[in-house]
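In the laboratory, one determines a bound structure by crystallizing the protein with its ligand and collecting diffraction data. In a computational setting the workflow is compressed into a single prediction: the sequence and the ligand go in, and a structural description comes out. We illustrate the idea with protoporphyrin IX containing FE.
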Amino acid sequence: MTAPHTTPITPRLKNDNWDLHQIAERGGIPESMIKGTISRQQFADYLGQAIHINRALDAALTNAIVAMPELAKLVTDDQSFEPYFAADLEYFETPEADTLGPGVQRFIDHINAHADEPLHIFGLHYVRLGACNGNRFVARKLRQVFGITHPTNGMMSQDPFGQSQRDQWTTFKTGIDALTLTDAQRDELFAGTRAAYVLTINLDLQDYASDEQLLAKHSKSLDREVFEQGHSVHVQPN
Ligand code: HEM
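The predicted complex, in C-alpha cell form:
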C-alpha cells in the first residue's frame, strides 16, 4: 500500500490545470458570458441544460460522502448547486431543457461512469466550486448587460456565495489539504479536476476532444504569464 502524503494537494490542483483553465475561459459559453455577448435567453437556455449536470453531480457527491465520510466536513449544504440553477431558471421564466445537448449528456455519463470513485467525483465538484471565483466576474458583467440590480436575481448559479466567496474557497482548500491521502487517491482527485475542465470545454462541441487534443489545438496561444497576471479576459486577480 502507498504511504500517505503530507504535501498539500491544492497547489497541484490549481497550478497543474492552468492550461485547461485558460482554454476553458477563452472559448464557448464562458467567454461569451465574461464578455457579455451572450443574450439573456441564451444564458437561460444554458442554465436549462446545465441544471441536469448539477443535479447529477449533487447526487453523486452525496454518495461519495457516504463512501468517504471525511469529505462530509468539507461539503457544506450550500454547495448543492441544483437549487441555484432552479432559482435562476425561475427568475428567467425558462424551463429545464427536455433534450440534452451532446456535451451535457457526456458530462452526465462521465459522472455516472465514475460514481464509485469518491475522490474523482469530489474533483469534479472542486472545479465547479472553484469556478465561482471567476463566475463572480461573470455575474458582475451579466448583471450589467441584462440590467439586473438585485444581487441574487438570476445569478445564484454563478455567484452563490457573494462576498464570502473568497473566504469559503480558502476554507474549502485548507480542508482538502488536511485530508490524509495516498498517492493513488491524490491522482484520483487530480484526474477528477482535469476531467471537469475537459468536459466543460467540450460542452459546446459536437464531437468530444480529449485533453491531449485540446492542448495540441491551443498550444500556440496558451500563455501562463498572461493567465497568472489576471486571466485572458482582463480580469484583475482579487
Ligand atoms: C468565464 C471565464 C473565467 C474567468 C474570467 C475565470 C477567472 C478565474 C479567476 C480570477 C480565478 C481566481 C484565481 C486565483 O485564485 O488566483 C479563477 C479560479 C478558478 N477557476 Fe476560473 N475563470 C473562468 C472560467 C472558468 C471555467 C469555465 C472553469 C471550469 C471549467 C473555471 C474553474 C476555476 C477553478 C477550479 C478555479 C480555482 C483554481 C484553484 O484555486 O484551484 N474557471 N478563475
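The two ends are 41 Å apart (CA to CA). Keep in mind that any predicted model is a hypothesis to be tested, not a measurement.
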